[in-house]
Amino acid sequence: MYQKVPAFTEFNEFASNSTGGKILFATDDFFAACENIISDKDPVNLPEEFTEFGKWMDGWETRRKRTPGHDWCILKLASKCIIAGFLVDTAFFTGNFAPRYSIQAARLTPDEEALIPKRISRMGTAASESDLELMSLLSTDKWEEIVPITVLQPGYENTRMNFQKVVSDEAWTHLRLNIYPDGGIARLRVFAEVKPDIPPSDQLVDLASMLNGARSIDFSNAHFGHPKNILKPGKSAVMADGWETARRLDRPSIITKNKDGTLKVPGEEWAIFELGFPGRAKEICIDTTQFKGNFPDTVKIEGAFLKNEYTNASDIDWEIIVKPYKLSPNKEHWISCHSEVINHIRVTMAPDGGFSRLRLYGFVETDLI
Ligand SMILES: NC(=O)NC(NC(N)=O)C(=O)[O-]
């Protein structure tokens, strides 16, 4: 049985590898390296797997502390953002999960970040005394406690998901995750809203990038992968890191084609995104990388400028930006386009399937921000 997932998990995620999060420091990596907590993959359990240090664990696990203090790590977020909530997943850490945690946040300048000692990430290691002394150069008044010391539940199927809502309007660049006194956690997910600087109006910007504030706000189907994945930076490394729907069950028993080569198959799946900035679209990329036997036949893109908060897709007067466009497997499709000023798009795939990334380059309409 799975736990109920809070609404803040619909926000983009800013700690994991695929979005550009980074572990900068950890006091101890004895049983399992801290980088595991930002892995994109869901944690796995390999009960028979042991390393020279102990039981192999898919997460960050420190040694049992026999000295004063507690363990902690520093993580750089993919972008400066306002945090809506956390997931501390203790999956498969049962007799060895960290019993309590807290989170502090900071806005660090590049000079301040440079004070953090270079990290050696290896199982069996711990930060040296001199590294810990260097860390004390980072003034403590930079770090604000945004999650107080909080009890964690063990990594059983029905207790592993430790969700924590955050209510604050401040934007942060770095997090310090404290575990008390030691132990393991499998993953840390940080759900947040990015507050990017406004780019100049003569610069082409990816208006659909999550790092520029784009977000997924509605969709018809996300069975295998959430549409918010297509807004992530960089290429997708696995098929799970994309938007993928279930196969539509209303497809005909035998598939045939229209004269123009499109499929004679009813039905489509759609997702709606709020763009990071209002602007005019100039070039769109639909990237089917990783999707080989399950890319959509076609994708259509429409845009709209909404003055008010989005409520319902059918109430909107959508302008077609890219007519149904025939796709190929495992490939970037770059399409030139021209739109009016828009701040939302509807992406419709027919009849179903998945793709990994969407780019929408355009000029920002700075007067409307
Ligand atoms: N069986 C274990 O998991 N033992 C120890 N942890 C690892 N990973 O070996 C521990 O700290 O309890």
TrEMBL record:
Residues in the signal sequence: none
Pfam families, from UniProt?
Allantoicase (PF03561)
Question: Which InterPro entries does this chain map to?
Answer: Allantoicase (IPR005164), Allantoicase_dom (IPR015908), Galactose-bd-like_sf (IPR008979)
**Sample GO molecular function, one term:** allantoicase activity
BP term (GO), one: allantoin catabolic process
> Where do the Allantoicase domain residues begin and end?
20-194, 213-364
- Of which family is this protein a member? Belongs to the allantoicase family.
List, alphabetically, the NCBIfam families matched. Answer: allantoicase
Q: What is this protein called?
A: Allantoate amidinohydrolase
Native organism is Pieris macdunnoughi
